[in-house]
Amino acid sequence: MSKEYTISFYFDSRRKKGKNTFPIKLRLYHPPSTKEKLFRTGYYFSEEEYMQAVKLKSAKGAKKISKVRKQEIGEILHVLKSKATNILKDLPEFSFEAFERRYYNKSAKLDVCNYYEDYIKNLENNKKVRTAEVYRLSLQRLKTYIEYSKKKEPKEIDFELITPKFLKAYKNYYSDLGRTNATIGIYLRPLRTIFNQAINDPNSGVKKSLYPFGKETAKKFQIPSGFKKKKALTKEQLKILFEAKPANEYQKKAKAFWFFSYLASGMNLKDVALLTFDSVNGNELSFERAKTRTEQGTAKDEIKVVLPPFAKNVIKEYGTTKGKKNDYIFPILLKSDTAFEQSTKIKNFNRFVGQHIKKLAIANGLPSDISSYWARHSFATFAINHGGASMELVQESLGHKSIKTTQNYFAGFPTDVKKKLSESLLNFD
Fold first, then answer.
1. Nearest partner of 413 among 385, 382, 383, 389, judged by Cα
2. Distance, CA of 318 to CA of 332 (rounded, Å)
3. In the beta sheet, which residues pair with residue 26?
4. Which sign, positive or negative, has the C-alpha torsion 366, 367, 371, 374?
5. Rounded to 5 degrees, what are φ and ψ at 266?
6. What would you report as the CA-atom Rg of the chain, rounded to the nearest whole angstrom?
7. 88-129 per-position pLDDT tens digit
8. Residue range 289-307, pLDDT digits in tens
9. Correct CATH for 235-419 of 1.10.443.10, 3.90.1150.10, 1.25.40.10, 3.40.50.2000
10. What are phi and psi of 257, to 5 degrees?
């Protein structure tokens, strides 16, 4: 395409809006045809704001605007001009009509919100309700920050707006509100996924050059991560919890399911709730992790566990006595549940076990931040340190695709193991 074009801005003083504000329009001039066209931007500034922001001479006696406001307007104009420039560079052949379609998103999905909504809808259709909730939260936090910074609620969010500078300001905003790095990371990881979705979509118009994430540099933003605390009980602490006497039936039930999870290779409580009668064959339990299922609903790998007597007694005491092959063992879910109802019940089940195992733990001098998920980490750590299991065996038992994920579950070797290693280093007999 021809590179002969000029992009500038036009202060449309003919159309006053609000209190002394006027529309700012993008002016595109094409010298070969000697034609130009104006495009609305959706922004309105006073004459003083516009003139001072673009460093033009203001009218005598004009009120000076603050440096912050001047910088804000300058950034808006820069984003608008960059967007127009990128569109023009990508057009195979110049025409005002082709530019207009791209500029107003008539033939390209450049709106972050659209991609979020499409992705959330796909998650819900595949019964991934909890994940969909995380993405909705991420989108809402993004809108909240933009409303704060731009002083108006965003109806659309251009990908061009999400720059490393924007993300740093976003992080500072939520840090000032008391959000931890771990929480901010939860907000931003879905946005990174949305960016990748758009870049991989040939019809989006979103180029790789816009991608703002990566290892921290002047041109990239690294999503913060919280300190990874090892969520595992030691051998001695596991013994204390196992022998602890529950104060009531709630604690007894919570303890039973916590240790069922621990003994069943650290099975997630969601997978416990989804267990069906055909999952058990004698002492062997077979199940498919809900987390690793494909969009078609077929699990990728089957995990097999040998159940010790304690785990079998949990099924006997808290499970349903009879049922068809595909009926749930534990009366937590119903086959008639919708995806939303199922998600809510699983969330309540997790909360129940977490709350009451915490009370039992505190009463016996164990960590107060214990949760149902500690059973999974405790299984991995005990299996390696005391059960003689290899990292690869634990990886298979947990159903992890990557051994790096398994390593994150491992709380490390105890001091006595390290001491034994140290003492053996000069033992050459």
1. 385
2. 10
3. 9, 39
4. negative
5. 70, 35
6. 29
7. 887 767 778 778 777 776 545 567 988 899 899 888 888 888
8. 777 654 344 445 788 888 8
9. 1.10.443.10
10. -75, -30
